[in-house]
Amino acid sequence: MTARPRHAAILFALLLPVSFAWAQRAAPTEEVRGHEIYQLYCAHCHGLGGKGDGPLAYGLAVPPRDFRDRPHMERRSDGELAEHIRQGCERSHSNTMMPNWASVLTDEDIASVVAYIRCFQRR
């Protein structure tokens, strides 16, 4: 093997793990994607910190859910949370103003939001 191909092989061997790591970071995680969607659609009522204290929450008869309420959130499955987001909370007879997001968010988007909402319980 001559010097140039050897150098190229060494360079390739050194850069491959770096390029792989960069590619892994390029795709957002589910929680990161959920955070972006949450800020766009949910934070107005539920607040940036998930406390149910967003700027639109103060005018509502029933306050938005506080996602930091561990006992309540631990009783809810990811499927239940996704269904509340998808269909809104009118179907749960909770008398809230939670709209349905099925026409706006995909199932993948909703799963990402649920993953992000679960982060509030770890804080």
Our count of helices gives 6
State the distance separating the first and last CA atoms: 56 Å
How many runs of DSSP E, i.e. beta strands?
A: 0
Mean pLDDT metric: 82
CATH architecture type: Orthogonal Bundle
Helix content: 55-70%
CATH fold-type name: Cytochrome Bc1 Complex, Chain D, domain 2
Count of distinct structural domains: 1
Task: Let me know the largest β-sheet.
Answer: none
Ranges where pLDDT stays below 50 over 5 or more residues in a row are none
Shape: globular
Which CATH C-level class is it?
A: Mainly Alpha
Query: What structural class results from the helix and strand content?
Result: mainly alpha
Q: What is the C-alpha radius of gyration, as a whole number of Å?
A: 21 Å
By CATH, the superfamily comes out as Cytochrome c-like domain
Q: Report the sheet-strand fraction.
A: under 5%
Question: What order do the helices and strands follow?
Answer: HHHHHH
Main traits of this protein?
single chain; 123 residues; mainly alpha; Cytochrome Bc1 Complex, Chain D, domain 2; globular
Structural features, described:
This protein is mostly helical and 123 residues long. It is built from six helices and no strands. Helix 2 packs across helix 6 and helix 5 (78-87) packs across helix 6 (107-119). The longest helix is centred in the first third of the chain and has 24 residues, at 3-26.
